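Supplementary Note 3. Input sequence used for the single-chain structure prediction.
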Amino acid sequence: MTALLFFLGVGLLALGGDLVVRGASGFALAAGLSRLVVGLTVVGAGTSAPELAVCIQAALDGRGGIAIGNVVGSNIANILLILGAAAVVRPFSVPRAAVRRDLPIAIGATLLLITLAMDGALTRRDGAILVLALVAELAYTVNAERREVLANPTITFIRNRRETLTQVGVAVAGLGLLVLGARWVVIGAVAGARALGWSELVIGLTVVAVGTSLPELVASSASALRGQGGLAVGNVFGSNIFNFLGVLGVTLLASPSPLPVERSTVLVDLPIALAAAVLCIPILVREYRIGRFEGSMLLCGFVAYTLLTLGAFK
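The predicted structure, written as discrete structure tokens, is reproduced below.
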């Protein structure tokens, strides 16, 4: 029964995340934002909504392992699984701005979290630091894109102001599904961890992380099929930035107590998340393109990490 509840919750997260992305990105595009900025901000935040819902619910329930594992595992899955799968579906070009500007920010967010987690706990003060870093990143990204638009008047936008209210309604409906789905996922994950003899951290790093990453998988694969490489890459990097700075930051602010960070997370999982982001540099800089071979290598890396996690912490 608990397994059914978990999978139903994942389904609601996937559906709710998709509705949030559709509504929010439609609203932002109607407002005149470019696809790259939409991917980095609106879609990145929208596809991180399942992680936020699950993490806050887990923190309120005193399940810190699920909250930390979900965020870290989702970021690893975003690059190795999501970006890899999108490239296998259809190779795509990568905007230079995504590599030169946004990838370093994603790496910096990972380094910041590693620094804050080294003392073995994440507090509300750490959450405030993460949220302030997110605000600064958003301001920098929007201003940088605005300068690029002014320097290149040929950049075009999608405008559809008539559907603005509809898109807002779709996003609100998606948020409602996310709240319910998050509750079911946490209940099912805790029961599953007890039944399998796994720690809550392992459940968060693997099963819950992949489940909450379904919106990123859908959004990036669909973008790759449409030949919208900027949206696909922006979705992955934007989601990673939002996960570490926004999702974890807000979760820490909402948590009634500090979240403990296991030593294995600091020594293994977070460095792997950092290595996955750094690995994107040689892959993307070479030709500003990611092909099926590179995508396959990323997928193999995700399989290896999952096997390592399950084997090492049973």
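Strands lie at 92-93, 121-122, 259-260, 289-290. The longest strand covers residues 92-93.
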